[in-house]
Amino acid sequence: MNEHFEYLTLTQLGKVFGASPNQVGRWLVEVGLRTNYLKPTQQALNGGFTKLVTLEDGSQFVSWHQEKTLQALEGAGHCRIDATAIEQGVAPFSAKMTGDSEIEISDSNGLCCCTAKDKTIAAKLVRLLNREPIMPRSANEMDDFKRLIAGF
Q1: Residue 9 φ/ψ, nearest 5 degrees
Q2: Which residues on adjacent β-strands are paired with residue 50?
Q3: Is 32 in contact with 76 (CB distance < 8 Å)?
Q4: Global pTM value
Q5: How far apart are CA 46 and CA 78, in angstroms?
Q6: Is the dihedral of CA 88, 89, 93, 99 positive or negative?
Q7: Which residues contact 1 (CB under 8 A, 6 or more apart)?
Q8: In angstroms, rounded to a whole number, what is the distance separating the alpha carbons of residues 117 and 124?
Q9: In this structure, what are the phi and psi dihedrals at residue 114, rounded to the nearest 5 degrees?
Q10: Using one digit for the tens of pLDDT, what is the confidence trace for 32-51?
Q11: Exposed, middle or buried by CB within 10 Å (0-12, 13-18, 19+), for 143?
Q12: Of 40, 23, 24, 20, whose CA–CA distance to 32 is shortest?
């Protein structure tokens, strides 16, 4: 990510994984670092995962230790997006099921660029990354789309 920052916001963390800040927040709940009330858990506090940031206007937010948080999220099976691979279009991209019911989308070098939990979403992502129409436009494309979904 950005080696210049020791702590990141949920938005910055989301960019690493290609996820929204809300999704990253849910993942932090799943790994035991954040409560359902949007506060760091005692485990996160004791482990040095968080830092409270106060802005000039007095408002506050929690930032997350980059290295520790990325390690925890990757340990839970979330893959970083390889933005360079996506930008350079290292096609073809493909998808495969992982052992934990997630679908890993990888470039032609086998580097994971993102994950999905839904087969239809994964198929659309693969088509998008390969610069194909996201939704099938003909019966033949629909058959290809169904084969893609069934393949993982």
Answers
A1: -80, 170
A2: 64
A3: no
A4: 0.56
A5: 23
A6: positive
A7: 8, 12, 15, 16, 66, 70
A8: 12
A9: -170, 170
A10: 999 999 999 999 999 999 99
A11: exposed
A12: 40
